[in-house]
Write a structure and sequence with these properties.
By secondary structure, this protein is of the alpha+beta class. It has 1 helix and 8 strands; from the N terminus they run αββββββββ. The radius of gyration is 24 Å and the shape is elongated.
């Protein structure tokens, strides 16, 4: 009986060791993912961008800065010299952050219907290329929802 018990203990130690060996790899991948997200967010908020084609521009048409609006709020972005679409097809897209929150990517239209609570809000929009790098400095608009 003692012999059987010691063998099962060896098997348990080996399985525990294998589980621990897989853990550093999982942590490594998690770390890589976190670094990628932080780098993307940092590039957006710190103005790191690659050069857009000459004549390319964008602006936030609605809502206007300092305006008071009701919800839902329609974000409308005007584009010049850029085609919105799927990055895998080599097309540009928009990154949108509402009140410093998670980035949203717009691939089909330069418009977004936002249901926002009452109060002050800030929206940051950037034109991004197929590699998700900003092409131009971000545009910001602040407004109030009543």
């Amino acid at each position: 009986m003692a012999r059987k018990s010691s063998l099962s203990g060896v098997g348990n130690k080996k399985r525990a060791s294998q589980k621990r060996a897989g853990l550093p790899l999982q942590i490594l991948w998690l770390g890589i993912a976190v670094v990628a997200v932080v780098a993307l967010g940092s590039a957006i908020m710190n103005g790191t961008f690659r050069q857009a084609e000459p004549g390319t521009s964008f602006s936030i048409v609605s809502p206007t800065a300092g305006s008071t609006v009701t919800t839902p709020v329609d974000l409308v972005v005007a584009l010049k010299g850029a085609t919105i679409g799927v990055p895998a097809d080599g097309l540009d897209h928009l990154h949108v952050s509402i009140d410093g929150g998670q980035l949203l990517a717009l691939y089909q239209t330069p418009e977004l219907n936002m249901r926002l609570s009452q109060g002050d809000h800030t929206v940051v929009v950037e034109l991004a290329g197929p590699s998700h790098q900003a092409l131009l400095p971000a545009q910001t608009v602040s407004f109030v929802v009543r």
